[in-house]
Amino acid sequence: MSSELDLSPHTDRQRPEDGDVAYQNKKTDMKTLFLKERGVSVFSRLESLLIAFSPSERLLLYGLTVVLAVSALALLSGVSSYVSTTVPTAGGTLIEGEVGPARFINPIMTLSQPDQDLSMLIFSGLMRALPDLPAEASAQAGGTLVPDLASSYSVSDDGTTYTFTLKQNAMFQDGTPVTSTDVLFTVQAIQNPDIKSPHRADWEGVLVSTPDQRTVIFKLPKAYAPFIYDTTLGILPKHLWQNVTAEEFPFTSLNTHPVGSGPYRVASTDTDSTGSVTTYDLVPFKGFTLGAPHLKHIIFKFYSNEADMIKAFNAGKIGAMAGVTPTDLPAITRADDSTILSMPLPRTFGIFFNQNHATVLADASVRAALDTAIDKYALVEKVLAGNGVVLDGPIPPGVIEQNASVSPSTVVASSSSLVENAQNILKRGKWSFDEAGGVWTKGKGKSITTLKFTLVTADQPELVKAANLIAADWKAAGITVDVQVYPLSELNTNVIRPRAYDAILFGEVVGREGDFFAFWHSSQRNDPGLNLALYANSKADSLLANARATTNKKERDRLYAEFAALVKKDNAAIFLFSPNFIYIVPKSIQGISIGTLSTPAGRFLNTYQWYTDTEHVWNIFTNDVTATN
């Protein structure tokens, strides 16, 4: 007998279901028939039940079914909302009007507001300022800064050496990497006196070295705390600019067709018959180091004057305007779908005395009386339509935390009492009023002095209106003043630079970093310094020098507060007001964050976060969405 198992197939042992195709098909048909009969049976029973219900019972059943469906949908919606987040998404267009052409879209040559606005969007620097108030920032700075093209930086213990490391993914809008040589080229171009950059003073004496392609070292001649703000300067691409001579710098087409590394790039332009650009269409630059912007288009249209721009706004051709003067606000008729933002600018408008040019202004009682006679609150209402702050010192609001220079009082003296107070100050200063001549005089015989002088200002509507209102206040107190108005260019060339004025009504752009050295240090009394009051006080000089050298914000604020009190005590100038900046934007634009501005272009600091469209994203994907934006 064989001991092996027979494993060969035998038809008499084969299971039918294993080999009979006909059987398999029959089995499938039976299963389908069973399911059909079962389904018909279920629906038949349901139909029988419905027939058995009374009309009112069927109505109740239908109602409960609807309630159940709605409740289920609401529950699903609630769960979805709980586990998801609304985030900005790409889309939307902002069309903004500008007064005047953009000629120098170049961070080292910017002059006009259109130049500065487009440069802010197209270029980026080693650091980028955030749109916050200085009071919200750290104790080491006048406002929050974040690395932009830089990945990190360090400052030496003595405050004179700044070392920056560039991000590996930093690139220009033509796809070329940003390197340390681009930074070196930009700074050297600013420092070149033949190029005549308006920002040259910020970089005077700064030495730049580049040990490698990603490292930049700045060496300052002495500690200067606000220098970190200078590193927000936009960087030029060396490979495009290196063959442009100093003489050609203002004329190259790169000024009107720029390439930078900022959040937006130029997609297209429109020109008029003369070849001047009338429209810029900017689109997101996806390589921007802080994330691709949301708005798909920012379009700038240029107008010759503010009246034409407002006309275009009222006609719906543009949706945003910046720098609208308060007196023109009533002319805006299409404001229902717009948001009007009024925010402080760190600017000080005042009357600065040249005591060397008009010796009558060297009398302390005269300067005090002139200050007392002015109704400053009326100026803010009549000149700025309330869009400003009354000042009582050289420091505008938002620059230092405890700003003693801004008068917090809400008690407003009447015009008659201001006049009386001013006259009493003059009388105590040995001045007497000559009723016949209608003037104040002091002294006797040949040494008699008459209180009269000239006030000059620029031909800007707000300044002219303010000058005339101030002259009226002084006239009410018996003080004789002659108001002279000059075109801005002529005022700068023929009056300010040679210091050929008795008193001048003008404004100082302080900036968020709060450096008052150029405006008040005695070394800045002559051109190109900006000490229009020709102020000279050794203690003030010491305070200013120490303040700009310290990196501790609280200590710097203390020094500046002491400086402001000293200037006020000396009546070196009459401080009038700090105007607000007015910006009109569509209500559809979200994500706008504007704190204290250094310049109007600062409104675009976080423009890469502006949006009109949103989408719901589950929380587990939120980090991914944030990372890509």
UniProtKB/TrEMBL annotation:
Domain Solute-binding protein family: 144-508
PANTHER family: OLIGOPEPTIDE-BINDING PROTEIN APPA, PERIPLASMIC BINDING COMPONENT OF ABC TRANSPORTER
Keywords: Signal, Transport
Record has Disulfide bond as a keyword: no
Family matches, as Pfam families: SBP_bac_5 (PF00496)
Gene Ontology CC annotations of this record: ATP-binding cassette (ABC) transporter complex; periplasmic space
Chain residue ranges for the region called Disordered: 1-21
Family according to the record: Belongs to the bacterial solute-binding protein 5 family.
Gene Ontology biological-process entries: peptide transport
Taxon lineage: Bacteria, Candidatus Kaiseribacteriota
Name of the protein in question: Extracellular solute-binding protein family 5
Listed GO MF terms: peptide transmembrane transporter activity
InterPro entries: Peptide/Ni-bd, SBP_5, SBP_5_dom
